Amino acid sequence: MGEAFGYVNQKGDTIVPFNKYVNSYSDTIINFGIVMEKIEDRYDLIGINQKGQRLYEIYLFDNGPDYVSDGLFRILRDGKIGYADATGRIAMPPTFACAYPFLMACK
Q1: How far lies 56's CA from each of 11, 28, 31, 98, in Å?
Q2: Which domain range does residue 23 map to?
Q3: pLDDT tens track for 34-72
């Protein structure tokens, strides 16, 4: 945490400048990356795309990003919880007031 980092594409072009975010949870952005953003006195985990654009907040669990459970993890938008898959694609839009880690129902 606090180490300078940034992201460059395969051509060497900077897509996320150094020191834009506080911490990185993704060393490579294939589909999406997870970074920590500081806004005033608040820290948010966010998902970013390959262009460095914010996609959504990621649910904070156990001092880091939510774990993938049955292929999905929790995300936040406007105070509501939804789910994204391991590629970062939103699988269930954030509409829930609360939500547990995703578990498929068994027969």
Answers
A1: 26, 18, 14, 16
A2: 7-96
A3: 999 988 999 999 999 988 899 999 999 888 899 999 899
